[in-house]
Write a structure and sequence with these properties.
The chain has about 70 residues and is α+β, with helices and mostly antiparallel strands. The protein has 2 domains: about 35 residues; about 30 residues, no CATH class. The protein is about 40% helix and about 20% strand. The chain has a 3-stranded antiparallel β-sheet with strand order 1-2-3, with no helix packed on it. About 0% of the residues are buried.
């Protein structure tokens, strides 16, 4: 009685790596569209002071650094 249920569950799409891989690739494309890797460093130009943070990033790795 349990075997047919397990077989049905194993046929569900979320248990295949193909679907998950496809979703990850689609998300990577969307992220690349939103945050292109050619952006490089972005600095705050409005009367910045020494203690004001600057946004520095390359690709998907973005971090705040103090100047």
């Amino acid at each position: 009685m349990l075997l047919p249920f397990i077989q049905t569950v194993l046929e569900q799409p979320l248990f295949t790596t193909d679907l998950i891989s496809k979703l990850i690739k689609e998300l990577e494309v969307k992220i690349d569209e939103l945050f292109p890797s050619s952006v490089g460093a972005v600095e705050h130009n409005n009367k910045s002071t020494e203690n004001e943070p600057t946004l520095v990033g390359e690709g998907r790795e973005i971090q705040l650094q103090h100047c």
